[in-house]
Specification:
By secondary structure, the chain is α+β, with helices and mostly antiparallel strands. The chain contains 14 helices and 30 strands. The strands form 6 sheets. A 9-stranded antiparallel beta sheet has the order 25-24-23-22-30-29-28-27-26. A hairpin with a 2-residue loop joins strand 29 (523-530) and strand 30 (533-541). The protein is globular. The chain starts with a helix and ends with a strand.
Length: 542
C-alpha cells in the first residue's frame, strides 16, 4: 500500500482536476485507482520503491511503497534516493554528446586516441561503438567473474576496468558487426569525459546536466563510502529473509547514478525543453545504432527506442546489486514514468509495462498467429536438437513436446509452413541441419545443429590438468571428482561440467568451455564463454 505522501498528492490533484472540469474528474480518479491496484499487494514491511508519473508538466502520481531500511525501520518516501542501474547510461551518453557539441571529440574518433591502454585489435573501435554496444569489447565484469571475482565480491575502480580490458587479446566480434550489451563501453566513456573535458566526469555532469536541469538530488556514486542522505538500502531475498545487497564499487558511468524518481522525470522534460544541449542533443540521443551490414538496432545513446501499442517509447531499465529501475518517456502523450526500487525481487520492466498499460491499454501481441499449422511429428523431430550460432556464441535447444516444437525454456515455436516457424517476431527457416533466424529489425543469424557429446572415461582423463588465462588472470584445475569432470578455482570455487557437444562442456552457470587440441591430438587449452565475454583463452600448463 502507498504511503500517505501519495494520498495527499492525489487529493490535491483531484481537487485541481475537479475545479478545471468536473466531467473529467472520474477519468483521473480511475487512472489513479488503476495504478494503485498494481501495487496493492506490495508488503509494507518489505523493501519497496517509488513510482512517479508526470503528464504535461504535472505530476499526477508520486507514491512510495515499502521500506528503505529494514534494520532501522525507515519507510520509503517520494524523496528517497536509489541507485538507478543502467538507467544511468543515458547521462553518460549525454556527457559525451555535449563534448561533441563543444568540438572536443567526435563520435567517429578511435577510442585509443583517448584510451591508449586498450589494445590495438586492427579494426578501429569508435566512440559511437561504445555508445551503442557494438564495440565488440568484452564486458570487464564478466571477465572478472571468470577470474573468480565477480562484481560485488571486490571493490573495483576505473583503474581496474582499464587493467582488465588491457589484458584482452581479442574481441567478441569486429566493431560494428553485432550488438552485445556491454558495460565496458560506458565505463570507458566516463573515463574519456575525465580526460577530455578538463574536469572530472562527476563534476562535468553536475555542471552541465544535473545543475541546469534542477536535479538537486542526483549525483554519481564514484565513492561508495560517501554518506548519501535519504538513501535506501538495497536487498535481495533468501527464503523468508532479506540480505543487504549493495554495490560496493567505485566504477560508474555504466550505472552508479544516485537519484530520485522526481529528478528522473525532470530529466525527461529535456526532450521538449532542450535545456541541456538543445534540440540537437535530444535528437542525437535518440539516433539508433546501425550495424555494418545495414541493420538499424533499437539501441541509441544510452536509450532503447521502441513503441507501446503504436506510441513511441524512449526507455531504459536498470539493475545494480539489489537496486532496480525503469525510466520511460512517451513524447506523443508527453508522459513520463519513473520507477526506482531497493528490492532485487522486483521486475522493473514489468512494473513499467503495467503502468504504461493504464494509459495505452494492455500491450498487444505482434506475434504472428494466423495461418499456423502443425507439421507431422517426423518433420518436427528432425528439427529438435542443439544449435549454436555460427556468428556468435548463442546456443539454443529445441525439443518436441505435446506435438509441438518448443525451446527447452518452454516457448512454443509457431509453424506457418513445414519448415517456417516463428519465435515471437523472429522467423526461423529450417534447412537440413541448420536454421536461419530473421529478426524483426532485419538482422539474421544462422544456427548450426550440434551433435550431443558423450565422452568416454579416457576422453575425460585426457582433459585433466592445470590451465592458465592471462586474460582472466586465473588458473583453473580440470579434475574428475566422483566420476564427473569439474573445474576448480582457488580458494573454493568448483563447478561440475556437463558434456554438451563435441569437445564442449557446460558448467552449472550455463557457461561454455570448448577444449582445443594441437596437431598431435593432445589438449592445448580451452576457450571460456560467458554471456558478455566470449572465447576467453586458457592455455594448458605443462
Amino acid at each position: 500500500m502507498a504511503s500517505h505522501y501519495r494520498q495527499n498528492l492525489c487529493y490535491l490533484f483531484l481537487s485541481l482536476w475537479a475545479i478545471s472540469t468536473s466531467a473529467q474528474s472520474p477519468t483521473l480518479a480511475d487512472t489513479l485507482k488503476k495504478i494503485d491496484a498494481i501495487f496493492s499487494q506490495w508488503n509494507t514491511n518489505a523493501p519497496g520503491g517509488v513510482l512517479t508519473v508526470m503528464r504535461r508538466d504535472q505530476t499526477i502520481y508520486n507514491a512510495a511503497f515499502g521500506m528503505a531500511d529494514l534494520e532501522h525501520n525507515i519507510a520509503n518516501t517520494p524523496e528517497t534516493v536509489f541507485e538507478a542501474g543502467s538507467v544511468s547510461k543515458q547521462f553518460t551518453a549525454a556527457a559525451i554528446l555535449l563534448l561533441v557539441q563543444d568540438g572536443k571529440l567526435s563520435l567517429d574518433d578511435d577510442i585509443r586516441k583517448y584510451l591508449p591502454e586498450i589494445p590495438n585489435y586492427g579494426p578501429t573501435i569508435k566512440i559511437r561503438h561504445l555508445m551503442t554496444h557494438t564495440s565488440g569489447l568484452r564486458d570487464w565484469g564478466s571477465v572478472a567473474g571468470v577470474g573468480g571475482w565477480p562484481r560485488g565480491k571486490r571493490t573495483y575502480t576505473h583503474a581496474h576496468v582499464l587493467e582488465i580490458l588491457s589484458r584482452q587479446k581479442s574481441l567478441n566480434f569486429p566493431p560494428g558487426d553485432q550488438y552485445n550489451y556491454c558495460n565496458s563501453g560506458y565505463n570507458l566513456m566516463a573515463i574519456i569525459v575525465d580526460r577530455v573535458s578538463g574536469m572530472s566526469f562527476v563534476e562535468f555532469c553536475k555542471q552541465r546536466i544535473f545543475g541546469p536541469m534542477g536535479m538537486t538530488h542526483t549525483q554519481w556514486r564514484d565513492d561508495y563510502r560517501k554518506i548519501v542522505p535519504n538513501r535506501a538500502i538495497a536487498y535481495s531475498g533468501y527464503g523468508n529473509n532479506y540480505l543487504q545487497n549493495m554495490p560496493f564499487e567505485m566504477v560508474h558511468g555504466n550505472g552508479g547514478l544516485l537519484t530520485t524518481t522526481s529528478d528522473l522525470v525532470r530529466w525527461n522534460q529535456n526532450y521538449k525543453s532542450h535545456i541541456v544541449g538543445g534540440k540537437a542533443l535530444a535528437e542525437l540521443q535518440q539516433t539508433r545504432g546501425i550495424l555494418k551490414h545495414g541493420v538499424t538496432i533499437s539501441y541509441a545513446a544510452g536509450l532503447t527506442i521502441g513503441d507501446f501499442n503504436g506510441f513511441k517509447e524512449i526507455s531504459h531499465s536498470g539493475a545494480t546489486a539489489g537496486y532496480r529501475s525503469w525510466l520511460a518517456y512517451y513524447p506523443e502523450q508527453d508522459l513520463s514514468i519513473a520507477f526506482l526500487s531497493n528490492s532485487a525481487m522486483v521486475g522493473p520492466v514489468d512494473v513499467g509495462v503495467k503502468v504504461a498499460a493504464v494509459f495505452f491499454g494492455e500491450r498487444t501481441s505482434t506475434e504472428p498467429m494466423l495461418g499456423t499449422i502443425v507439421p507431422d511429428e517426423t518433420s518436427l523431430k528432425a528439427k529438435a536438437g542443439l544449435y549454436r550460432s555460427v556468428r556468435n556464441d548463442n546456443v539454443t535447444e529445441l525439443e518436441v513436446k505435446d506435438g509441438l516444437l518448443r525451446t527447452k525454456a518452454g516457448q512454443i515455436l509457431q509453424a506457418t509452413k513445414e519448415h517456417t516457424f516463428f519465435q515471437g517476431n523472429t522467423r526461423l527457416e529450417f534447412a537440413g541441419n541448420k536454421y536461419i533466424a530473421y529478426s524483426s529489425n532485419g538482422d539474421t543469424l544462422t544456427y548450426q545443429k550440434k551433435t550431443p557429446f558423450q565422452p568416454s572415461e579416457k576422453d575425460l582423463l585426457a582433459l585433466v590438468g592445470t590451465y592458465r588465462s592471462t586474460e582472466a588472470d586465473a588458473t583453473y584445475e580440470i579434475r574428475i571428482k566422483n566420476g564427473v569432470l569439474e573445474t576448480f578455482l582457488l580458494p573454493d570455487l568448483d563447478q561440475k561440467l556437463t558434456p554438451f557437444y563435441k569437445n564442449t562442456f557446460k558448467n552449472e552457470q550455463g557457461e561454455l568451455l570448448e577444449f582445443t587440441f594441437g596437431k598431435t591430438g593432445k589438449v592445448t587449452g580451452f576457450k571460456f564463454t560467458t554471456g558478455r565475454a566470449w572465447n576467453i583463452e586458457f592455455v594448458r600448463v605443462k
